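Support reply, case 0932

Customer input (verbatim):
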Amino acid sequence: MSARGLKTAASLAIIMLVAISVPVLADINEPRDYSEGMLIDFGRYDGVWIPAEKGDKTIAEVLDYSCTAKGYAVVKDSSGIPESINGVSNNSVRTWTLWTTPKDSGVWEKQNGLPENLYMKDFGFVTFAFSYEGYTPLPCVDAEGRCIFNDGTLLRAITLAPSCTEMYYAIHGIGGLVGTDLYSNYPVSISDMRESGRVAAIGGYTNPSYEKVLGQSPDIVIGEASIGGHLDVAKRLRSTNVSTLMLPGSDSIDAICRNIWTIGQATGNPENAKAVTNSITAQLDSILSGIKNTVRKDVLLALGMLPSAFTSGDNTYMDDATKYARGTNIFGEENLGWFPSSAEEVKDRNPQVIIIVSESAVTTQAEYDEKMEWIRNNNPQWAGTDAFKNGEVYFFSGQAADVLSRPGPRVCQATELLANALHPECFSNPLPKYVGDDYRDYLTVSAGW
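Our regenerated output:
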């Protein structure tokens, strides 16, 4: 297999590992470091953390202190709840709401008490969030329940997964990155610097080397909480006073943006993280505006073309990107993440479009025709769908496969590519039926970083 094929195969293997992995819970007996302060959550991934000693102060007192420290004008109602902070005022959809977490948990709970009667020391974290129905404030802890805020001195970083690398790079550039997993290959400069030794290779996706990580003297190590190997290394590193950040699953575009926000906070660069999430939401809005009058199409999202291929259900990044692209995942009601599908059920659900993330390169019409012939001969159920009969089968390989399979800041590129496949009439440069390392040629809104 070519080097490119190996990289793509590794990306698909990562998805499957995440699909079948079971998150390991943090040891509840370990002490948890809860920083003192208040979060002002303006919504849309715009949150500001203001350090403040809790002491015997009420929430009302710390709110006043925080707003004064940041220069925010605040208007309160008779109960002491803000009606407006820094010009962001209640409306018919969103209102300022008080949220707190218990001391032993990072889970937000709406708080109905009066701020002047509630004491900061009685809670883990406190935020006033510009909330709407169903909103959850921005996180203050990582997936293990550890505080994400710091004094901004975490300069040397190691990332344990390609998605973590891409999110870190989008915020910081190559600057403080001193190590990555072997499969982080975007931007290309990451691979080049790893080959030159400027950035260390610290192991595989599931089995990072504790010794290689520690040998780089990192200030912070960023990994995924769904991978046991990441949690094991993180636990050992904390015994040497190295900070760790274990991210929850990026199973939606919202989760991706929250993880970008979290990395920005944990690495002392919240403003750059805000700029990244602002860019993502603006690009998604632009993509949506170009396809808003289209009719949704039924889509199969598959890793490979075997009859039992892993396919996307609900709670995956690709499912969410497909919704933004005005498609309907045929398995979207299956709350299973990635799962091996039944070819008969695919035929019964009869997708109009099939999206295949391919581990082998498909870069010519001859290679595409060969793949289609293989499906015709070896997967007759898929061949019996409208998508196959009408030639609406798309292969994404190489870098294009990475874009679709990696939940990170290139989510807008994935969404635009999917939108182009589903609604080519809306694009000046319609997507061919096979896309690889040339995927950027078909982007207009989301050229990205």
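We compared this against your earlier run and they match. Two observations from our side: Residues 292-442 form a domain with the Rossmann fold fold (CATH 3.40.50.1980). Confidence is low (pLDDT under 50) at residues 20-34. Please reopen the case if you see a mismatch on your end.
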